[in-house]
Amino acid sequence: MSTSDSCKYMTVIEVGSDKSYKNVMINLNDVDYIESENRRLVYYIGDKRYLQITKLSEMKSVLNEQDGFVSLDRTNLVNLNKVKEYDQNLGNVYFDQKSESEGKRSFTTIAKIKQKILSPLIHRAIAQNLGLQRTTTVDSQNKQRLFKQPEQE
Asked: What pTM was computed for the model?
């Protein structure tokens, strides 16, 4: 059997000898064997055991706000670096901008209870993602505009 030079890495949970858990990256080419244990994959490298991350709660410990990821409700973990629009009325964040054709858009939801807390963070992320300055102005129709193009110097 030939071995490939390409490496494939995966973030997994290392099970310590004292039953402690730690998130680590493993090279899948280093894996001796993989077993299924209680409906979960277990990777073995030498005398070490690594559990595959299968739950959102486990992924939250790997990807956190420092990485740009925030849980907007109990069913998601959102990369704020990818959010382009936020509809507070519908409670949706969108990962693409509204187009004239209004085709299907990629979005996820934000829990009502988290909207007030996370709205400023989401708006800052959108402004940064779109290269806009965050402002708060009210136009003649009493609609709040949160972003404007930066002034050219």
From this structure: 0.67
